[in-house]
Amino acid sequence: MKYVLVTGGVVSGLGKGVTASSIGVILKACGLRVTSIKIDPYLNTDAGTMSPFEHGEVFVLDDGGEVDLDLGNYERFLDIKLTRDNNITNGKIYQAVIDKERRGDYLGKTVQVVPHVTDAIQDWIERVAQVPVDGKSGPADVCVIELGGTIGDIESMPFIEALGQFSYRVGAGNFCLVHVSLVPVLNVVGEQKTKPTQHSVRGLRGLGLTPDILACRSTSALEDNVKQKLAQFCHVPSESIVTLYDVPNIWHIPLLLRDQKAHEAILRVLNLHGYYSVAKEPDLREWTARAELCDALHEPVRIAMVGKYTGLSDAYLSVLKALLHASVALQKKLVVDWVPATDLEDETAQENSDAYKAAWKLLKCADGILVPGGFGDRGVQGKILAAKFARENRIPYLGICLGMQIAVIEFARSVLNMQDANSTEFDTHTKNPCVIFMPEGSKTHMGGTMRLGSRRTYFHVNDCKSAKLYGNKSYVDERHRHRYEVNPDMVARFEDAGLSFTGKDETGQRMEIIELPNHPYYVGVQFHPEFKSRPGKPSPVFTGLIAAACGQLEGVLQQNHRVSNGFGAKISVYQNGHATKFAKMTTTNGNGIYSNGMQF
Hints:
Structural class: alpha/beta
Strand content: 15-25%
Largest sheet: 11 strands, mixed
Shape: globular
Mean pLDDT: 89
Distance between the termini: 36 Å
Helix content: 25-40%
């Protein structure tokens, strides 16, 4: 097993996760099998109880693991399925060590950070690296490890020490350290400054780790004299120094690494370079075509994202990526308009009329409306108003998890005339509980007690949009994260009024998918389809939303019907509703996703 460790210096938010994912992509394109591990130095056992404002979205895995959003990047870039053990935290390590101490495994010993905690970290890495994540048998060839945080953080010290020991444990030729650092350009001077990276590398070396490759973040490519200076002071060959400069979209990062021969530098350090190596030149033709296609798109499709955490795009990262995957497949330029749910409410109209008017203007100008998952009652009324607007004005709507529950509550209030209809999450005394707490849930412990992970949904209506989008399968497996569900005792009343529950769990008692049959596209799903969306394989329900928003849904449904009946192959790019092959695009008059007019 070979290991590539990615660390970061100077400041946080440099893009270590994307860098680690891109390294995995380029190694996979060389013919190697790749797995990934993310190390988070916080004391939480997992990310499940963290606020999205604090740490971005919680990404959910097939096995129910609630993990850091970077594991979502790994899965999307590498098209793999990770497990909860691929996310290591201080909390997990210390819990494992304390459990061993309580069992008596260290009987007679004084349990210390070194060697007991550091050994536990190394053993965890070695064990998890052997687990296949690409659907094939046997371990991967290379494990890419990302160490969260910044070099020098006090909470990272046990991991730094453990990784230093680990490099000796696995031996030379099996361990490569890639250090991501910042080379800023001061506006006053106008030159690239190397001192921050020099100090970062000096700190790293002082902790017992020596970088083999420097990945320097900057606004533009490093100048030759800057590379030479970094090589001299950081003791890294100039050919092992690469620039990660600003690009139109992150799909260009693996291409940057390839163009600067980063794969050759990594393969040299890992003794995978040469005549007898299994590695080959990276084949990134499809990846290149997709990145260039994304740049070339210019016809916009506007999606209003009505949520609670709209001030931080990372809170809905997987949703944004799923929208991007679908829009690129349909050759549309994605524009996301962030609509704070509270700004749609009558209370805001009285307190801040400008924000109220701006929010409603965005909603009314949207081609489609999406209400993502969330917790708590803040903004719920605004989300209900958004769902009502979409239903009454025949605007394509997709509700995810809470967004589906919101659609059910709105339907009960507006169509069934149940004015006090609500979820018991927001009103425990409502007389019409449309959404209720699941009986197997815990009201005393918050962490890891929801309905989590991959669950099977069976289609109960064949002639519906969601079933057609999924290729007319009898069931689908999607990932879940929720404590509340649609009240099964009220389903018959909803169905009599025209709301169709097209997907249910294996018992038939838990509602998974809702649709309005006579609406252009009004779909709600209890699961989180964004977690399984991939650049070349967009989520079907997201594809449906984008297709309906740009008037191509009928063509997409017809294509999926032909594919499900064995005519032709399923292809990821649609033009005017019809599937086409990836075409290499040369014009670059578009810049990926735009959010309220700003690229992110």
